Structures are given as structure tokens and as C-alpha cells.
Amino acid sequence: MSFKILNTDVQDFINSSLKVNFTKTALLKNPFPDIPWNEILNQIASKSKAQEKLPTWFSQEGIMYPGKISIEQTSSEVTAKYKASVVSGESLIDLTGGFGVDDYYFSKKVKEVVHCELKAELSEIVSHNFDVLDAGNITCIQGDSLKTLQKLNRQFDWIYIDPSRRSDAKGKVFMLQDCLPNVPENLENYFLFSKNILIKTAPILDITAGLTELKNVKTVHIVALNNEVKELLWEIQQGYTGGISVKTIHFSKSGEEKFEFTLHSKPENITYSLPKKYIYEPNSAILKSGAFDLIPNVFALEKLHQHSHLYTSDQIVDFPGRVFRLAHFFEFTKKNMKEHLQEKKANITTRNFPETVENIRKKFKIKDGGDTYTFFTTDANNNKIVLICAKI
Q1: Which helix (H) or strand (E) element contains residue 281?
Q2: What is the DSSP letter of 192?
Q3: What is the pLDDT along the chain (392 residues), one digit of tens a residue?
Q4: Angle at Cα 324 formed by Cα 248 and Cα 277, nearest 5°?
Q5: Residues 6 or more apart from 194 whose CB is under 8 A from it?
Q6: What is the spatial distance between Cα 10 and Cα 42, in angstroms, rounded to a whole number?
Q7: How far, in Å, CA of 17 to CA of 259, rounded?
Q8: Residues in a beta bridge with 329
């Protein structure tokens, strides 16, 4: 990529184009013939995607952007800051550097960071950006990361890896062995250079499957943003054989929600109940964790059904998820639906229910949105019921 793209006139054009329909811009004649038009368009598209996800990069003049895929795959600043809270010490090497967002935040916690990137152009772009961002304690090395580790031949306090799924693994069950680098295969090699390894994976990876492939896992972090799980973090310590801690963190506009437990913890007796005054729905990070039976004990709640993962109480409690005030509930029948919901507007969620949201909307002509929140679920007596709620 040409560094001519940093020319003031070109940058002004890119910034002004962010407010214009991209398709219309793409049809224009290139106003800068000495720079490939596709490169300029790529800067516009990638910078546009960075506006909310990477505000530090977006607001800084002189930043260069890689292809849209790199921006889409990179961590957001919110999740990168969280990862940085996990590590400590003098040195860290990132074997899958990418756009370098994680490393920028690692560099604020660790004195020396090494960014490894196989793609030469991306490595060059990231190195330039780190200079612009005044991240002077990050060194960029282009090339195969395992060879880089062997060449440096030194100990790091942490190794960080964000493996990408191989293209030939499409359609298969997501496993770490289907990614590059193959972490399970290379784990012993990594331990030659660090006792602590932090692995980021996509939320699609099943936690039980990940634990089967990995060893010495100390902590699994489940990170969600605006009620969508964004990534799983696997904290590995050489020789560790103790209990595995699961930490869930949910970032939203209203703040942070944290929940922590030890894997395979046995819950006390769980109480089931018909819906009471308040209904509780765990956030997406907790749902991913599978800690459904621990919640009643921790928060003094009752479950609606073994498989519904909705909770209830007569007294409101502080809860990591959505809380609703129950207006009323009824058995799911055509007659009851016609009386209470047909051709009305409501938000619909299904939990342990045979019908999909789409089918319910279509069958009863329910429009999306509004202030009414409905849960189609199964109660403690195995009856199909509908909860009509107001969000608190």
C-alpha cells in the first residue's frame, strides 16, 4: 500500500466520504490518479467500520487501515482493554498480531510487547500506526511466529494467540485444531518460551470442547458486549492442574456485569416456581457459561423450569442481566393469544419453547418493538406459557 494515501488532500477526501453513501463514492472517478482507487475506497470502508469499534484509531490523524476483514476480525477497544487486565509482567509476545489493537492495550500493562504478523503489508501498516499512537514499547516483526519465537530464543512473561479458522474447515464443528496456528499441537513448543499463555477464540467454540483440546487451563473468560458474546479467553499456566475458574463479563451502556464461578461447582437444591412478581433473564455471557443451576443459589431466585433458564422472585434483586416486572401470564393457546397478543406490538423471546420467534410473529401477526416484552416458555408444571412483562 502506498503511503501517499496519508497526503492531506487524500485524507480530507476520505474523511468527507465517511458521511456519503459508499456505493455512490465507489462510482466516482478517482480524483487522485497516482493512488489506486481501490486503496482509497478500502480506507473509507475500513475507517467507517472503525468509528464505533476503534474510536482511538478513528480520531487519530495519520492512521492507515488494512482491508475490511482485518477490521472486522480485530478486537474492539472495549474487549482489548479487558484482555490487558488479565496480563502483567515485563514482556509479552503476540503470535497473531493482526491490526494490533490488543497489543496497543497490552503495551499499557507490560513493558515490552512483540507483535508478530505473517502478512508483510499488514505488519508495515501496524508498525506505522504504533508510531502515530506513540506506542514506543511495541516491536513489530514480520514473518512466521513460531520461527520468530525460536529465533528470539528467550522467555516471555506471556504469549498471546488469536488463532484464525482455516478456510478448509468451513462446515465442520469448530475446533482449535482446525485453526492457524494449531494451538493444541504447538502448546508444548510455546511452553518452552513462556509459562503463561492467553488464547482468544470466537464465541462459537464450545467450552467443553475447548477444555478437551487444551491442558493446564486456569481460567476461561467469557466477554460480551451489548449482550452479544464477542470472545472467549483461555488463560493457561504451565503445569496448572487445579480447579478452572469461569469469569463472565458483560459490557453495556449501563456499565459492567460480572459473574464468576468454579467449573463443575455443584449447586444446592434448586427451587422451581410458577412466575412471581419479577422475571430475570441472564446476560449472554452467563448463558454461554452454562451456569444455569448456580444462579438460584447465588441470587436467591427460583427457576421457572429446569431447561427454561428464566428466574423469578417476589422481591427484586440486583442481577447480571435483564430484569422485568411481570404484568400477567397465561397458557399458550390460540384463544389466549387472540385475546392478549394477536395483531399487537411486542418484543418476543423464546426459552425452552417449541415455536420460533419468527413463527409466532407470523402466526399471530405480532409486530416487533414497543414497551411490551413477552417470554414464550415452559413452566414448572411443563405447561407452555406466555409471560407479559415490562422492562425495569
Answers
A1: strand 278-282
A2: T
A3: 678 999 999 999 999 999 999 999 999 999 999 999 999 999 999 999 999 999 999 999 999 999 888 898 899 999 999 999 999 999 999 999 999 999 999 999 999 999 999 999 999 999 999 999 999 999 999 999 999 999 999 999 999 999 987 766 566 667 899 899 999 999 999 999 999 999 999 999 999 999 999 999 999 999 999 999 999 999 999 999 999 999 999 999 989 999 999 998 887 789 999 999 999 999 999 999 999 999 999 999 999 999 999 999 999 999 999 999 999 999 999 999 999 999 999 999 999 999 999 999 999 999 999 999 999 999 999 999 999 999 99
A4: 120
A5: 93, 155, 156, 157, 158, 159, 238
A6: 13
A7: 43
A8: 387
For residue 264, the SS3 value is coil
Q: Which of 305, 279, 310 is nearest to 381 (CA)?
A: 305
pTM, full prediction: 0.93
Phi and psi of 101, rounded to 5°? -65, -45
Q: Which residue has the cell 492467553?
A: 198
Phi, psi (deg, nearest 5) at residue 311 = -130, 160
Task: Give residue 167's Cα distance to chain centre.
Answer: 21
Radius of gyration of the chain (CA): 25
Architecture in CATH of 74-262: 3-Layer(aba) Sandwich (3.40)
**Cell numbers that stand for 171 in this block:** 462446515
Coil vs helix vs strand at 141: strand
CA distance 218 to 272: 33
Residue 98: how many other CB atoms lie within 10 Å? 24
Residues in the chain: 392
| Residue 151 backbone phi and psi in degrees, to 5 | -70, -45
Cell (9 digits) for 229: 458474546
Return phi, psi of residue 9, to 5°: -65, -40
Angle between helices 37-53 and 8-17 (to 10 degrees): 60
The residue ranges of every structural domain in the chain are 3-63, 74-262, 278-391
Q: Where are the alpha helices (DSSP H) in 318-384?
A: 334-340, 357-364
Alpha carbon separation from 103 to 51, 93, 115, 133, 139 (Å, rounded): 19, 9, 7, 12, 10
